[in-house]
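As a warm-up, study this chain.
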Amino acid sequence: VQLVESGGGSVQAGGSLRLSCATSGDIFNSKCMGWFRQVVGKEREGVAGIRSSSDVTIEYADSVRGRFTISQNPAKYTVYLEMNSLKPEDTAMYYCAAALSDLVDPLRPQDYDYWGQGTQVTVS
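Now compare it with the structure written out below.
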């Protein structure tokens, strides 16, 4: 079981980054893939999630809706988070996660089974 995030870095406010989450095939076929972020001393929060059951459902946190886009490339077993118009308050460690069940809230960390190690995003 492996999820590997990449694409983090430092960027000025208003800039963009694209995060990638490379997975194995069995993990990519999980029912729900999500992106979360965490600042030291605060709880991990859901940023975006994509749930695949009878249809595809995408959800975003209010704080990022309209600026962030989650997508996936089945051929590469990769999930992306495109982040535009970045703000200093977006600074955090960003994590990719997978849930085996589709009976989850895509933005609720407790519903996920597997996690990556994270990639740092810093916006100044």
